[in-house]
Each structure stands twice: as C-alpha cells, then as structure tokens.
C-alpha cells in the first residue's frame, strides 16, 4: 500500500506554503454535519439558481451533502456545504410566499408537478432546522497570492477535493491549479468561492483528499497539445515522458472526429 498523502511532507518537498485560513470563506471551526441520508430540504436549482426546489440528501461526505433534486434524474447530483446559503429547511419557501419549482429537466409532464410535490412531501423526513448552519462572512478582500497551496473541489468531479495551488490572482478572482494534472482541471473562481479550503480542511472534516496527480507541469515553451490517434492508457496519459515524445498527427477521416481522450478521468 502506498503511503497516504501528507501535506507536511508535500509542502517540504515542494518548498511551498499554505494559503492562510483567513483568505477563505470557510468557518474557522468547521460545522458539524447533522444531516442524514434521505432527508429532504429546499435547494436552489444549480442549473437555474432563481428557482427553489425540493432536494433529497443522497450522501454525506465531510461537511458536504450530495443532493438530488426531486423529479430530476440521477445524473445531476450536486454537492453543497451544510453552511451553504443555497440550502434551507422545508417550509422556508412557503414562509416567504415563494413557490417550490420543478427542477430544470423535470422528468414528468409539467401539469403533474403539483401532485408530484404533494406526494413527495407527504410523509417525507425533513432535515431539522438546526442542521442548517449560517454561512460564514466573506473575507473583506482577496488576499491570495500566487504559489499558495490549498484544497479545492474538482469541478469536473465535484465529489473530489484535491491539493491545488493558486496560479494567478486577478481582482476578485483566483486561478486554481490542481497539482499534478497538467492543467486539465484548472479553473478561475471568486476568492470567496465555497469550493476552496485551507490546507488541512479535509483532515479536519473527515473528507477524503485526493492525492496530487503524477504529471509534471513543464514550462509553456516545452508543452505540446494532448492528442493521440489511439486511446492512450491511463499510464501513458499521466506519464511526464509523454510530454517529451513527438506525437503523430491525428488521422483525418471524413465525418469522423479524431479520437481524443475526453479528459483525464
Ligand atoms: N477521472 C480521474 C479523476 C481525476 C481527478 C483529478 N482531480 C484534479 C480518476 O478517476 O482518477
């Protein structure tokens, strides 16, 4: 068995430093996760954030919830922190005079929504009000600096939190670079994003932390585009050696696109 990832050793190896906790919009002491699988709540539809829907807790990981909108399919699950302002107790909508909406892509006829809603809520286990925690305030300014280490949600695989580095800072935004993945998962986000965490967050909240990938990031001048005529193996995709090997051109066949790896998943 390979040794588990250790931030302490990794920071030494890379002679880097963690971003100070005060940079993040996260609770200094992480909240407890008092939700249970099967509980229902109200959540903003991630694909249509003005609408509030019924969601069910499908899983718990650290202080995050895996949520599924009722009436939606199983391929649009999303993750939220227990102190996210995107979630609220059932009844909140009604109190404010709003209406619960069917999710984008409701799998039935729109006319069946009222009855569906009634049946969904009938006898449902509702998440208690006390399980919802207050969202921490946003830090007054963006104090991230390039090179600082952190833990970040991989937006392409949102159940994963991975070691990352601040690549660039521009106004309110920061560029999140995933260590060892050659840029395939990197993204820009606001400095107060709820998807980025201080070093040690996963350990603290008992969330698993994906170890860094094993690809070396070469200077821009030495990089070549990832493309290959045949399906590369996981190994070859990740080997730093691949970057130094000249690649044959993609086969051009009419109407058929050259096969490329979708992403390094
Ligand atoms: N599909 C890959 C996940 C890669 C995640 C990278 N995160 C920065 C795997 O299954 O290993």
Structure report:
This protein has 265 residues and is an alpha+beta fold. It has a five-stranded antiparallel sheet, with no helix packed on it. A five-stranded antiparallel sheet has the order 9-8-7-6-10, with no helix packed on it. Helix content is 11%, strand content 22%. The protein is elongated and about 60 Å long. The longest helix has 9 residues, at 113-121. The chain binds N-methyl-lysine.
Outline, from the CA principal axes? elongated
User: How many individual helices?
Assistant: 5
> For the CA atoms, what is the radius of gyration?
22 Å
Mean pLDDT: 87
User: Percentage of helical residues?
Assistant: 10-25%
Query: How many angstroms separate the termini?
Result: 22 Å
Q: What characterizes the major β-sheet?
A: 5 strands, antiparallel
Low-confidence stretches: 228-265
Share of β-strand residues: 15-25%
Strand order of the largest sheet: 4-3-2-1-5
Helix-strand pattern, N to C? HEEEEEHHEEEEEHH
Number of strands: 10
Structural class: alpha+beta
Question: Keywords for this structure?
Answer:
single chain; 265 residues; 10 strands; elongated
Topology:
Layout: H1 7-13, E1 40-45, E2 48-61, E3 64-69, E4 78-81, E5 87-88, H2 92-95, H3 113-121, E6 149-153, E7 161-170, E8 173-178, E9 187-190, E10 196-197, H4 201-205, H5 234-238
Antiparallel strand pairs: 1-2, 1-5, 2-3, 3-4, 6-7, 6-10, 7-8, 8-9
How would you summarize what this structure contains?
This protein is an alpha+beta fold and 265 residues long. The protein has helices spanning 7-13, 92-95, 113-121, 201-205, 234-238, and strands spanning 40-45, 48-61, 64-69, 78-81, 87-88, 149-153, 161-170, 173-178, 187-190, 196-197.
